[in-house]
Amino acid sequence: MEQRWYHPVLVVVLLSIAFAAACISFLPTIGDEGDGKTLQVKTGDTIKISLGETPSIPYRWKVNVTDGLEITKEDYASANPVGELMGMVGGGGYRTWEVRATRPGTQVFKAEFTDISFDPEWRGANAPVNEQAVTRWYTLTIVVD
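Request: output the structure for the sequence above.
Response:
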């Protein structure tokens, strides 16, 4: 009887695909369109909020959330990963936060797009004060059942 080598390989490939699919997160994602809007979720639900950012300029999102929300993950992804690998600089991407609703009530995710070159956390305690550092605000109201 002839040995068929491709059966075990096929099984391994199919199991790998199933495992990878189980690991992918399919969370609802809200972007710029969520600014000024209200979203309804249940306690324990997690959403993603993704906003544009360019790390090569000194502007970053600074986020505050009310007590009934918890930021469980923050990440940055380039909009052009191939260009980044080729050494291209200056490209933008997206800052993404995974936010979990931990308490019922009206909660708020608030972000400021600010010039961090004037931020004492980034530059040190003696950084000059710049009243014009915040250039954009983003507010998403989240009603948690």
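The chain has one domain: 27-144.
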